[in-house]
Amino acid sequence: MLSRPEILIVGGGVAGLSLATRLGKSMGKPGKARITLIDKSFSHVWKPMLHCFASGTLSNENDKVNFITQASGHHFEFWPGEVASIDRENREVILSPLLEADGTVVLESRRMKYDTIVIAIGSCANDFGTPGVKEHCMSIDNLVEANAFNEKFRMELLRAFANTSELDIAIVGGGATGVQLAAELHKALEIVGPYNLHAFGKAPPKLHVTLLQSGARILPAFPESVSAAAQKELEHIGVTVQTNARVAGADAHGFILKDGSYIPAKLRVWAAGVKAPEVTTAYGDLTINRTGQILVNPNLSSIDDERIFALGDCSFIQDDPLPATAQVAGQQAKHLARYLPAWIEHGRKVPGCVFHNKGAIVALGKYNGWAALPGGTVWGGGISHGFSARLAHLMLYRQHQMELFGYYRGLMSCYSDWVETFVRPSVRLD
């Protein structure tokens, strides 16, 4: 063990930032360990809300958590960078050079010592090797990608507006991300409509969104009744939903389906499948599965190295596979925050992490929402829909903010967002 244990947390998503914040309080503040968070970005957003950033219905500045600010207020350190590899023999991580947008080197490759490392780098969409997807499709796995899509969306809307033409968008993937993005895009266009009418004297262009799902129904993680109701709601607001639609390829103008049909689309979004980032293949020869997830024991330690833990979407428990959701990642982060200190200080083994399913919520913008909860009644379980479900979805986001900021700062953040609704547009216009 090092004289002062070095705990490295790789990835500042839901799990990583929550763990860094909690360990900063329990071990960083009293000087029991040095906690360092590593991420290639400088800020955190709650991943289940990325579809709102992509559509422009959320303000980036209000809803981002700056890593430097969070670190300075919660007794951990932050270093920007991406872990290129792990030297398990010398207990070091090797960071890739940090580059500017033009390729200029800001920081050379660096090495950082660790006593314990926690990998929480999340996941990304899985194109399954489908021809043309990487070259012609966009995704919204992180804030950079969500912002890039929003920029393209606004520019294509402007072009369609000037040419009095329709804007065709196709989304592959009928899970929560694809379904919510489809609804949120229509919400954004409804909000921006009055601005166009008053500024340019004409109504906005017609938006045509097609949602492609390879399976028999959308939202397969929810009960069939929710899937049917969500599809009906999407179709009501103008989304074309195609199930059993297997994509064979993509090009610069749309998607080719395996049945030979073609779906034209100016904007093409791939939101199907989940896999770990490819960098896991360079993490010290750790055992991974076919989707790149690190194989871990029930206590979240790697099956190859007890000093390395992995949690959230980038990990896989062979005996008890769990879905790649923010709920799972959050519970695992709390588990490690509770038991890692005793393991590091006294060598007490971290017990197995038991996941408690609290249900799932999906919100279709302002139109509808569903909460599928365990049990037999609506509030103790069952399914609720409408405003209560949409409010519950929003409260999950607010709860996440309060976990990071603390109760009073979290309330102030809610108040600040409310005030913003009176002074700024409710959709991104520039």
TrEMBL record:
Coiled coil: none annotated. Keywords: FAD, Flavoprotein, Oxidoreductase. The keyword Membrane does not apply. Residues 6-333 form the FAD/NAD(P)-binding domain. SUPFAM superfamilies: FAD/NAD(P)-binding domain (SSF51905). The keyword Flavoprotein applies. Its cofactor is FAD. Belongs to the NADH dehydrogenase family. This is NAD(P)/FAD-dependent oxidoreductase. It comes from Gluconobacter cerevisiae. The lineage of its organism: Bacteria, Pseudomonadati, Pseudomonadota, Alphaproteobacteria, Acetobacterales.
